[in-house]
Amino acid sequence: HWAAHAGRGGYRAQPPGLGGVQGRASPSARRGIQPLTRTVPVRKRGVAGRSAAVRRGRLAEARAEAWLVEQGLQVLGRRVRCADGELDLILLDADGCVVFVEVRQRGDGARMAAVETLTQGKQERLRRAALAWLQAHPAHQERSCRCDVIVLAGSRVGTATVEWLQAVW
């Protein structure tokens, strides 16, 4: 059926008469040829805002990483993705403990505190992602592990106050 993949980003054949200007059949359609066209997802409002949020998030992660390195931790990974989610930072502390860090950044006028945005579902995804990382890195499987949260509070990442919550879950 011609509309089988409509709306899912797949390719679909158009029905006769819809290949060109609305209300007038395209030359291809007049000859009985049905062109294949790619459906393009509609750009929703807020996409530009999300890319700005992604940039702010990346800056916050870089700031948190630099701060943790100053505290004596060694970076094992950053922005590690797996099927269950993404780990912002993975570090090794001075005692040999693997530290999985979630970075949260909130502006001065935020309605919710950064820690309040870590729902049970998000915590569970992070836990599963940490387990997947440990399975993929057998050299670290016998080490103790913990999950920390770095909260950057302030409207500008570069001057934000850093709060380090250790062993949050």
Describe this structure in words.
It is a single chain. With 169 residues, this protein is α+β, with helices and mostly antiparallel strands. The chain has three helices and seven strands; from the N terminus they run βαβαβββαββ. The protein has helices at residues 27-30, 47-70, 120-136, and strands at 11-13, 36-38, 74-82, 85-92, 98-106, 145-153, 161-165. A five-stranded mixed sheet has the order 3-4-5-6-7, sandwiched between helices. A hairpin with a 7-residue loop joins strand 6 (145-153) and strand 7.
Which structural traits does this protein have?
single chain, alpha+beta, 7 strands, 5-stranded mixed β-sheet, disordered N terminus, two-stranded antiparallel sheet, 3 helices, 169 residues
Spatial strand order of the main sheet = 3-4-5-6-7
Radius of gyration: 24 Å
Number of helices: 3
Separation of the first and last Cα atoms: 50 Å
Question: pLDDT under 50 segments (min length 5)?
Answer: 1-22
Q: Hey, roughly how much beta strand do the residues contain?
A: 25-35%
Helix-strand pattern, N to C? EHEHEEEHEE
The average pLDDT value, as a whole number, equals 77
Report the principal-axis shape.
globular
Major beta sheet summary: 5 strands, mixed
The helix/strand class is: alpha+beta
Estimated helix fraction: 25-40%
Number of strands: 7
